[in-house]
Fold this sequence. Notes:
Blueprint: H1 2-36, E1 43-46, E2 51-57, E3 61-67, E4 70-75, E5 79-83, H2 85-92, H3 112-124, H4 131-145, H5 154-159
Antiparallel strand pairs: 1-2, 1-5, 2-3, 3-4
Amino acid sequence: MKSLVSLLPFVVLIGAMFLMTRSAKKKQAAAVQMRDEMQPGAGVRTIGGMYATVKEVHDDTVLLEVAPGVHAIYAKNAIGAVLDPVEYNRIVHGDDEESLDLDGTVVPDDASSLTEADATASTSDKSGIDLGKKAEDAETKDAGSGKKSEGETNGEADAK
Length: 160
């Protein structure tokens, strides 16, 4: 019985290693399948983080266009992800289809156009409260009554 209890942690460890190895093999097989299904014209991201367009696919290499007219040969294993065209255009060209509504309304990039009307309305409104003046009146009333203001310490109050 004692030998069974002492072997239990090793059995659990071997089982965990088996499960981790199995999931890693599945990920590796999915990556190989993705690279094998890669077609010319697809947008890709390399494992180094560079975005490019596939021009030619060979057995172990891929010809990528990294900039207009600039081609480079990469190993297939260097391809980290094959991107769908919408995502590739959003990342590389800055095309953002989500900023346009279906009716053609353009959504602004910032909120300045939304707040300009509010700012002009508040400056033209003269019935607003002047907070600076009320703060000065409160200080003079406190000084005249001998009461301690918010910023004063005991030493300052004794000096008065």
